[in-house]
Design brief:
By secondary structure, the protein is of the alpha/beta class. The chain is built from 16 helices and 13 strands. Helix content is 36%, strand content 15%.
Length: 510
């Protein structure tokens, strides 16, 4: 067994793991070559924008940044620089702040604090979240920071979060004052016995491998990084294969089936399920092959030509980029479409992708009308309420484009509803997202994947393409990847329709 890591102080990443699962925390600290420090996971589904520091600079123009330490020597230097900066700060230093302050307490903990400012009665500590609300883990983190700061002799006046104010409308010209709002967490810290937690964490490390707790979050919200090393105790089993989990049938029904003694979908009688959609899912899992109801073919064969297969990409910046827009406003930046003139005809691809300057929404709407507004053929999309709502929002922005856009919205046909009512593939694992469905239905097309220069989503790639100073070659590479991804997605929509129009090889049970 590898020796426990006792040299590295406990930090907020350790606290998050320990609060979630003591076994995960223990295994992480016993991992050879443990990273130092453990980076906090990025904000989920948040694209900060091309210049996320602009809002901070607007609020704290005299702010100073300390680089993130990665070695013990870096930590020692960062702590020294932190104490020097704090000693030089005065209560009347307007706009002063220290970002990334590093402190270590005498009871084995350390903190890298997002933001410290000087108030009239002490120090003000904040965790920056490019989000509209905080989470329980944020309160734990801020409680640890306040504990470490107090042990270092700092008089803490305020602890809280800096969150994005969705009521803010960006006026342009880099004026971000007012984007961030303060949330005081002081009243919540009394329920966080941080000193006791640290003592319990240290005791945990000195002991043996903790037992697997009931309801351990092994796969939620993402798979635990220690899952492969987490051998369950005798009598316990690893989590059920998510493709066969009872949860694909719904939480309430899953709880009832577990109470009846079922461990997964394989043992569930199909006639025990209340409707055809659930029976179709269970049948697909039990036979290890997708199930398609024949009624889907009739629905799709009734659609006239030309047919347009449409996919949108949108983005919502935490720090708005275009004047007149709000944080997290859903803004379309790309559309991709394949038009098929008749049965067996080759697809005609069309599309739009916003450039690096200016609000693209009117150009987006105009190009969409130019491509699709001159006929009355059906527009096929997946989870089409999304595309339909974006089109209606654009119609509300420009009166001259409104009639054509509203008429276009009425032509959108939702392939999601057809798929959910007539199809199931066991690899979907209960998820009806575009990514899950098309990774199962047509994995060879790669419509469920995006990767360009290490960027894992089209949102990240588009945000990167807006970065000032980006080379022309890199910007073009990103644009080419986005356009190719859009073509893969519309190709996946066409493959779904082709599959559903064919008679199924295996009839589903009633």
């Amino acid at each position: 067994m590898t020796m426990v890591d006792t040299a590295t102080p406990l930090d907020d990443a350790d606290l998050r793991r320990w609060r979630a699962c003591t076994r995960r925390f223990w295994l992480q600290r016993h991992t050879p070559a443990r990273p130092n420090p453990v980076a906090e996971p990025p904000e989920a589904h948040v694209v900060q924008g091309p210049a996320p520091d602009a809002a901070l600079r607007a609020s704290f123009p005299a702010g100073k940044w300390l680089p993130a330490p990665s070695t013990p020597a870096d930590w020692a230097h960062a702590q020294e620089q932190t104490h020097i900066a704090l000693a030089a700060a005065t209560p009347d230093a307007e706009g002063w702040a220290l970002f990334g302050a590093c402190l270590a307490s005498d009871d084995g903990a350390r903190a890298r604090i997002d933001l410290i400012t000087r108030g009239p009665h002490g120090w003000r500590l904040f965790k920056l979240r490019y989000a509209t609300v905080g989470a329980e883990a944020d309160v734990d983190t801020v409680a640890l920071w306040a504990h470490v700061a107090a042990r270092c002799g700092l008089r803490v006046q305020t602890v809280g979060l800096l969150l994005v104010d969705t009521g803010f409308i960006y006026p342009g010209h880099g004026c971000y004052a007012g984007l961030l709002r303060e949330v005081d967490l002081g009243p919540s810290l009394g329920s966080r016995p941080t000193g006791d937690w640290l003592a319990a964490m240290q005791a945990c490390l000195r002991g043996g491998l903790p037992p697997m707790p009931t309801g351990a979050p092994c796969t939620q919200p993402s798979p635990c990084e220690q899952l492969a090393r987490c051998s369950p105790p005798t009598g316990q089993t690893r989590p059920v294969d998510p493709c066969a989990s009872l949860d694909i049938l719904g939480r309430e029904l899953a709880a009832q089936l577990r109470a009846d003694g079922h461990a997964d979908v394989h043992s569930v009688p199909l006639d025990a399920l209340p409707d055809g959609r659930l029976r179709r899912a269970a049948q697909a899992v039990q036979q290890g092959a997708p199930v398609l109801a024949p009624q889907a073919a009739a629905l799709l064969q009734a659609l006239p030509y030309p047919r347009h297969f449409l996919r949108f990409e949108t983005i919502g910046f935490a720090v708005p980029v275009w004047a007149g827009t709000r944080p997290y406003q859903v803004l379309p930046f790309q559309w991709s479409c394949d038009t098929v003139a008749g049965p067996g005809a080759p697809p005609r691809p069309q599309g739009f992708l916003a450039g690096p300057s200016g609000d693209p929404r009117r150009a987006f709407a105009q190009s969409l009308l130019q491509a699709l507004g001159n006929d009355d053929g059906p527009v096929l999309a997946y989870n089409a309420g999304f595309e339909r709502n974006r089109v209606r929002e654009l119609a509300g922005e420009w009166e001259d484009l409104s009639p054509g856009l509203l008429a276009l919205a009425e032509r959108i046909v939702d392939l999601f509803q057809i798929a959910r009512g007539h199809y199931y593939h066991p690899a979907m694992a209960g998820s009806w997202s575009f990514k899950s469905v098309f990774a199962a239905l047509a994995p060879e097309l790669g419509a469920h994947r995006f990767d360009c220069n290490g960027l894992a989503t089209p949102l990240d790639a588009f945000a990167r393409s807006l970065q000032p100073g980006l080379s022309g070659d890199e910007r073009q590479q990103l644009r080419t990847a986005l356009q190719a991804h859009g073509q893969r997605q519309t190709g996946a929509l066409r493959s779904m329709v082709t599959l559903f129009e064919q008679p199924p090889e295996r009839e589903p049970l009633p």
